[in-house]
Amino acid sequence: MRGLCGWFANRPVDDGAQVVPRMLANYHGTVQDIVSAHQPQAGLAAFGAPARPVLLEHDGFVLLVAGHPRLRGSDRSAIDLPALVRRLRESGKDALAALGGDFALAAWDGQRQRGLLAVDRLGIHQLMVARPAASLVFGSTLDLLFGHEGVPRQLSPQGIFDYLYYHVTPGPDTIYAGLQRLAPGHCIEFGPQGAGPAAPYWTMRFTEERGRSVDELKQEFVGLLRDAVREASSGVDAFGAFLSGGTDSSTVSGTLGQVSGRPARTFSIGFDVPGYDETEYARIAARHFGTEHHEYYVTPNDVVESLPRIAASYDQPFGNASAVPTYHCARVAREHGVTRLLAGDGGDELFGGNERYAKQHLLGLYQRVPAPLRRFVVEPLLAAPGVGAVPPLRKLRSYVEQARPPMPLRYESYNLLQHFGVPQMFTPEFLATVDAHHPSSLLADAYAPFKDASLINQMLAIDMRFILADGDLPKVSHMCNLAGVDVAFPLMDDRIIDFSGRLPDELKLRGTQLRWFFKQALLDFLPPEIITKKKHGFGLPVGHWLIAHEPLFDLANDSIERLRPRGIVRPEFVRQLLDVKLREHPGYYGVMVWVLMMLGLWLDSRKL
């Protein structure tokens, strides 16, 4: 496993040389291949394999970089680190604008007693931070922070509530009070007066340039895609790719074989459950591109056996069930000698591939109806007694009810807590300690910078934060980390991000046609079955297995039962969920069972 950690202080620390070793000793995993540096007012260290971080010292300046940074505008995949040191020393955070790729960075200028922390544009790498008196403590995980004696370990009720709302703990806050995660594209400067606020050095921009033909755009995009995959696979011989059989993973796998000049090694996960197994499409892609393909079928026993370890490996509770198949896929790749996997994440959030985008387009049409007509004619008519007895009017009323809220409130209609009802799920005592509207305020904050963008770009911006940075990226990165495999995300190359920002909105979502341009650009490259299939990925058949596999249900029941003394969730809600609702609709209610189970397992692993 890999990570970095350290501290900055505005005065010399007597036992400063011992701080970083204590932080490393607190890491919830294995530490190897350590590189470190110590000065009177700073300590920095990194560890891990196979992608070992780089530590560079020059004339009192220390630079620590993890990941795969690249210099924007350069054709080289390897960055000139001495040149970066000079830029950082001369320009501070302004030098970050020249960086692309995925990275976490910590720098300390011993001459000026100044420090800098930064993470990449989409948050592929993470840095957690604490602000004890006159110092700044940082680490790739929260566990590392607790090795510093000035950092308290106190659970945040708000963090627990936000986790149960989003199924992850959304940034910038964490599950612990007072500790934060550095947001994507952000940095923190440290100086004689202490640590400044986290500030963006980059933000997503949607310029929607028009006037170029689709053929011209296609040529540019395919060139960027090949460059990104080539660079993501450079520097290692034993590389491979996730292959779910979806558009993104098939694109990355096919391009990998193309740019490497040899069959790509691809890895897929299957489930022996109708409606969940996607190996047929993975095989279609593997045959089409001539990959060296490997499959593994995850079983309920695999889940029961690996789940406690997976839950404990995260530094916060993580409720996305697809972490389990992701781990097993990465594990199989590692067993076949692969040291770096290429993942297809990011395509949906850059080019408009999620099903809800089409639904939100249809709901958004209602806002085009003149407000007086909506308020004084349509809505009173549909609220009249007896309307529910007429099927077409009942359907229209349902549409209007979903379409009435403006963005971003309309985006919350998918949330499980909105369906359950917050007072019905949580105890009054717990609710008294939290702000039940906090998740909505986070959504509003994410939406605000893009309120004047087109609807599809508003949704993409929101999902870059809540789906990618908070969910999918930690899922894939951490599970690969746990399996001992490095991971790269070529579709999130900064050049492709820039291209997405310039792409006209109508080419991303054409009516209800998802990722229209992406598919047009790859029409002659991907198999037709992949082009036309619906999105799926490595979704776990949670509800089905909870009902059909007694050991998994027992694990869930026992884990959730351990939450009872904490007084978070109403006992009657839990019993109704497990004994009645789960069996009525396993696919729907199984999600909340899983989310509660993962919370219980994680709390138990931390002895909290």
Number of strands: 18
What's the domain count? 4
Quick check: average pLDDT? 92
Catalogue the unreliable spans. Answer: none
* CATH class call of the largest domain: Alpha Beta
CATH architecture classification of the largest domain: 3-Layer(aba) Sandwich
Helix content: 40-55%
Helix/strand-derived category reads alpha+beta
Specify Rg, calculated over alpha carbons.
24 Å
CATH superfamily of the largest domain: HUPs
| Spatial separation of the terminal alpha carbons | 24 Å
- Count every helix, treating DSSP H or I runs of 4 or more residues as helices: 26
Main β sheet profile: 7 strands, antiparallel
The proportion of strand residues reads: 15-25%
CATH topology of the largest domain: Rossmann fold
Shape by Cα distribution:
globular
